[in-house]
Each structure stands twice: as structure tokens, then as C-alpha cells.
Write a structure and sequence with these properties.
Glutaredoxin; 6-stranded mixed beta sheet; two-stranded antiparallel ribbon; globular; alpha/beta
Length: 204
Amino acid sequence: MTPRSTRPARFAAATLALPLLLLAGCTDEGGTNTVAGQAREVADRAYNSGDGRIETLAPDERGEPVELTGRTLTGEDWSSVDHRGGIVVLNVWGSWCPPCVSEMPELEKAWTTLQKRDHKVQFMGVNTGGESPATAAAFLQRTGTSYPSLEDDGGVALIALQEKASTPPTTLVLDTQGRIAARVVGETTAATLTGLVDDVAAKG
């Protein structure tokens, strides 16, 4: 089923104070009886993200190709340009972002499902929010995320995404020419994401 297309959505703004972000993202240990646990509880209540709305663009409505480069959490150089000819799914995330944490199993499910289909698809996470590569990598390992992710580069990657992913979580689907063909602003599901990729593959 083809996902519903909407008009471009305004981005929601994150309202967390930086100290809470950093403290809540530093550890997963402890409940609300610890300082870190209390900070995470406050962060969960305070964080505002998109509502999961979907934007799809017909081939003749798409902009210039995205040219995203960076270093993965395992130390390899990566460029979206090298994956032209296939579909690229980019997910902007941070372990301090509650909806990012919530959607990780759905993203992994979509990645696993799409690898079995007749599509040439690459998933790449884009870490943001000031996390160290070690913290981000440890989080992905704990959540069982098998696709790679770029380390936080201080916001350079977000500029390369043409101001289409200013608030995590945001997921972008690039067509075979590297153009943004679909976007989910906020938490997504495996069914939504696989449907978007199928749709982009069918339309070119």
C-alpha cells in the first residue's frame, strides 16, 4: 500500500536543555533514584519531535541530489554518492532522543525485510546531539542495530541533508539519483518505511 502523501511539514523543535541532553545520553544505568535516571525521566517528558507525518515527492518534484559524507562509527569513510543507482535510507538519531530509541527496533525490522526484496537498498544512521562515537556505538550494540551509522560531526551532515532533517528522529529515502524522494518527520514504523522504499523503487 502506497503511503499517504502530505504537504511539506514544518519541523518541530527540540526543547531539551543541553545539560539534560548530555546527562541523559551518558548512561542507560539507574532508575529514577539516580541523578541520571531522573534526568532521563525529565527528558522523556520534555522532548518534542515530529508526529510521524509522511512527505513523498514525485520524480519531477525532487530537488538536487544529496551529497552526504562522513565517517562511520567503525571508522570507515562513507559517501552517499557511492550508492547512486540504489535507494539509500538515512535516519537521523540520538540515543538521548526517546522516539529515536523507540523506533530503533522498527528500523532494524525494515532493514532486515528490505534486504530480502529485489531492491538495492542501503541504510545509514546519522548520529547527532554531541554523542561520542563510543557512546553511539555502544547504544547500537545494545539495541541490536545491524546497519551502520555515521558519527556525529557537529551538524555538518545535517546541512548536507538540505535542511530536511533538523530534528531527530527524521528518516529520508533517497532515490537512485540520490534525491530526497520521501521523508518521515518523527517516529516511524517498519511497515511505513518498507512501503516508502517499495514506492520509491516502483517510481524510480
